[in-house]
Amino acid sequence: xxxxxLKRILTxxxxxxxxxxxxxxxxxxxxxxxxxxxxxxxxxxxxFSFKIRGAYNKMANLSATVRxxxxxxxSAGNHAQGVALSAHKxxxxxxxxxxxxxxxxxxxxxxxxxxxxxxxxxxxxDAYEKALELEKSExxxxxxxxDDPDVIAGQxxxxxxxxxxxxxxxxxxxxxxxxxxxxxxxxxxxxxIRPEIKVIGVQTEDSDAMIRSVEAGxxxxxxxxxxxxxGTAVKQVGVETFRLTRELVDxxxxxxxxxxxxxxxxxxxxxxxxxxxxxxxxxxxxxxxLAEKRWKGKTVVAIASGANMNFDRLRFVAERAEVGxxxxxxxxxxxxxxxxxxxxxCALIDHRNVTEFNYRMSDNEDAHVFIGVQISTPDxxxxxxxxxxxxxxxxxxxxQNEMAKTHLRHMVGGRSDYASNELLYRFEFPERPxxxxxxxxxxxxxxxxxxxxxxxxxxxxxxILVGIQVPPGQKTRFRAFLNELGYPHWNETDNPAxxxxxxxxxxxxTA
Length: 511
Description:
By secondary structure, this protein is α/β, with parallel strands linked by helices. The protein folds into three domains: 4-10 and 19-46 and 167-322, 3-Layer(aba) Sandwich (Rossmann fold); 51-142, 3-Layer(aba) Sandwich (Rossmann fold), CATH 3.40.50.1100; 326-501, Biosynthetic Threonine Deaminase, domain 3 (3-Layer(aba) Sandwich), CATH 3.40.1020.10. 40% of the residues lie in helices and 20% in strands. An eight-stranded antiparallel sheet has the order 14-11-13-12-16-17-15-18. A six-stranded mixed sheet has the order 1-2-10-7-8-9, sandwiched between helices. It has a four-stranded parallel sheet with strand order 5-4-3-6, sandwiched between helices. α6 links the parallel β4 and β5.
């Protein structure tokens, strides 16, 4: 490797706009993994991403004549903001081509800096091709998001700060990879100054162009890439970034969406910062690598590379983080449609914290229940399946079933022509063990549960929707049951939404 990169990094002009960011210990992650787990908080940059370093260094090194003509860039968002802010600082025109899948928060941020935006294609590669067209037609200078020595050198200043702030031994630095600019710059500096430190690249399982390229010994172009981690959704890595990564990076690790969501939550718990998916990629990779290699007592650094999170994604992240942390298991359970079976099933799992319970009566023989259960170890799902099946409840483990996690859990239900005399009630249960069994124990044995929906949303109380088949003439007894139970409740039997989507036979009692 040419030592030119060391000089480029040491002389990079990044601090006109970038700030030296903290290197902080993640206390919870350190305790849980048994290692010194340090976070390089690049999400604290003015654009909430490391990308300002490389963009500004590139543009600051352009001649005044070239800058006056204006610049153009293609980016999924963070590089776009870096170019836009740099252009604002340097007083030049900036045109940014962004994929149509770019989160609105990033598009709006670019426009606030005064840059012109063009939305085109579904990935960085699509936007890149469009930007090359505009570069020629409008006589602009292209600022590449990763495959440029000045951009790579600008990103390499992160490694300079890490080693300056932590002169003590470091075993590994984990770096997210999209097109490869960040890891190329980090590796170029570390391997010149402290070659004993491992540099480990992290990619998502569905956007792993760099890992595939290194494995193949040539740059591989992917046909499609996953877009959850939009900041690293690159179909083909750069020529120079591939060369440096192949030469200098020690190892790689792939992570899935659930692990990424868990890492976002981990960082929030340790720092109260909310990273975007690409920003949490290195943390997710470090967690997996430490577990797979059974490292203990090591010192590792993970670069938290960005925090331009689309707020609407937080709901998805929160839902999937439990599975990604091996804290929630999902099951499909079959039980006989007979009195007492629902209660027996609940008794078997009542000592565990139930995170979700979806059931709708469908026929007079078998019922199928979708259950989420909080777990503490990865081997628990198999034990739960064995326990349920031993007690006569055929069970399927759905924890790693993508369709079940993404769609099925929201679709369990529908109409039922078997749910005669059904009352629909909405309850608020205290969010503590035993609340469900108290409900079932208080309920009259002649009444049958025909619908049940519950999802733990982290509040002090749980919201439950219950369908109960109450025979005619028992409304007084039913009201007594509600009073004895004492949980806040609302009668939804006449709710028009119930009639549209859940209602069956109209022979219902009034209560």
